[in-house]
Design brief:
7 helices
């Protein structure tokens, strides 16, 4: 995944739903690192994966990712000191506090919140 992330001309390994296939809680820290790296050509993709990860966790009432793990990931994002991932963390914390604010298109569509990173 990291090799693809830094290959500017590389197409996604899977033509459809690559974000859904790739987004797994185990990759959360990697997604943070790549989304925070301004030198990563595909950083916006990884930011989208973070939004999908958080949105899916709240949407499923933390069946796909335990709340404690999501909170730890937001802590990690805030300590990174990078605007895109800090904004993601703040938005995620807000959604966790008010889960009824979850909107599928905002959180799970690449044209949603990930398209306005700050």
């Amino acid at each position: 995944m990291t090799a693809w992330a830094y290959a500017p001309e590389a197409q996604p390994p899977v033509s459809q739903d690559w974000d859904i296939i790739a987004t797994r809680p185990a990759f959360g820290s990697l997604f943070l690192t790549l989304a925070a790296d301004r030198q990563c050509p595909h950083r916006r993709f990884f930011l989208g994966c973070l939004y999908l990860l958080a949105g899916d966790a709240v949407r499923t009432r933390f069946q796909t990712m335990p709340e404690v793990s999501l909170r730890a990931l937001t802590d990690e994002a805030m300590s990174a000191g990078e605007a895109w991932v800090s904004t993601w963390a703040a938005r995620t914390r807000g959604m966790v506090r008010t889960p009824e604010s979850f909107d599928y298109e905002d959180w799970c569509d690449p044209r949603g919140l990930a398209s306005t990173p700050t």
